């Protein structure tokens, strides 16, 4: 018999159906990382030397040798920094002007790198730029929510090879986030503690779903993971907003994120993946009940009518086995 | 500038970003419907004559010539009809035994048909079996929600070519459904009317997003469609639970569903799609606030990190243009 598990943070129910399961290593993808990618492409707008191919940059992180990370406007922005936040209500038809920010963060001057293969300092530089852009953009009072996310590979929604991530700052709070915050608030009111801190404590005590621990962060597969290798990285310190991360924590997050992505890269053969940073809306900053975190979703399974029609998920892999597999992956080997 | 639209029923915000838009016919898929599919395959468990290859059938619709539609157990059931509904609570770790039902509805004895190409009577037979299975399974008190859905094509999550759909009956109410019901209830309490009935009335008055009207059903692209050609079919009569559909309404729904799927088939060249029937949980039947409906999602776009990280969507097609395109598709031509 299968088992249903509920994620108390998202309130989602997941069916763990291992009868249709593959062995953990069968989730591994075709040998994409053996395709040789050049370190420079002359028509790539993100490559070193091609800076004039992007729109005007909003931020650049330099060292003595030149730029390390750049933030530039998205070429096809979903949200624009020009204009006012205007809401239109006409019966049930409700709309809002698409004001906000939509930036691309070019993670490295080199075309052929990916987080899993970068130096820790390179990854730390990306996180520094995330924080800088987050802090800067939150000053814009039209913005209510800032999302930072990465699409790696075609199956994860990007056609651009050059390592990059994105920032989208919306003039609304997404309903899903609003609902989760309300649930977290209710848990705090009922129990007097942060549900995320409690989850982290219980996951650490159980141990079997932990992938990697560093000084300030813990990477684990949630008890009710939505899909095989669905990973959460939680800061140990309670903090609601991503931009409260300290310099020391950023360096430690770089170690943690790189380690986890490298384990996926080696263990699952460079699968397509998305990650995103989930942080509190900009109007609320310090709260006792919400805790920012990173979610990583390797694209090793497909959602179908059941998931679309219910918001529930079927995970064909036991989270404890997926975590054991990733713990065992030796990342020195690549 | 882009526009954000809110769907009052799902409360989801969608960014309508037509700057990156394709022409409507560019969403068209490769020429899949020109691949010749045989009408019988000897190893297909769903083909006429191969009935012994499935588990014991739970229902069969016959006419003088033999069976028309069969309901059989899913070979890899996500939920099992054996056992008790047992809930386990251990701190934040909450689980439930996977009791329920997971059936496959074999839509036709022929291997090479698809809803778009069937006779209206064939489609009506499928809907009759949906209703029979729904009514029968709702008697099981362990079941809280019944989902009926279809995955058409590999990109929509099926590898089986033979026309089929599925029924999943879960021992929980999916959180997404619970939240939508609460919102619908609140709307009713505030406004004294069903939000779905109001939506249908306003969509009919606006007209520009309507695809097809039949006597008892209306197919339209919602104002805040999540993706290009995201379609809803609403019954005109207020009714919360799918199994309240009458015989006359079933025949009319067959006409409507077939017409819409044929417009997609012709206009978008047989894209992969999912549809699902959204109905009230089995414990609540007649309510003034909830209204069952069918959602159809052609798989012509990909969700990426932004959608995963926010629950918001970016739709690159203007719903009014998608609807005008589908209205104009001539379905006599194939």
- Element string of chain A (H = helix, E = strand): EEEEEEEHEEHHEEEHEEHEH
Class of chain A in CATH?
Alpha Beta
Q: Strand count, sense and closure of the main sheet of chain A? A: 10 strands, antiparallel
Shape category of chain A:
globular
The SS-based structural class of chain A is alpha+beta
Stretches of chain A where pLDDT is under 50 for at least 5 consecutive residues are: none
Oligomer: homodimer
Strand content of chain A: 15-25%
Fraction of helical residues of chain A = 25-40%
* Number of domain modules of chain A: 1
Span from first to last CA of chain A? Answer: 39 Å
Largest interface: A-B, 75 and 75 residues
Round the Cα radius of gyration of chain A to an integer and report it: 20 Å
Number of helices of chain A: 6
Q: What's the number of extended β-strand segments of chain A?
A: 15
Describe the structure.
2 copies of one chain form a homodimer. By secondary structure, chain A is of the alpha+beta class. Helix content of chain A is 25%, strand content 24%. Chain A has 6 helices and 15 strands. In chain A, strands 3-4-7-9-8-13-14-12-11-10 form a 10-stranded antiparallel β-sheet, with helices on both faces. A 3-stranded mixed β-sheet of chain A has the order 1-2-15. Chain A has a two-stranded antiparallel ribbon with strand order 5-6. In chain A, helix 1 packs across helix 4. Chains A and B meet through strand 1, strand 2, strand 6, strand 8 and strand 9 of A and strand 1, strand 2, strand 6, strand 8 and strand 9 of B.
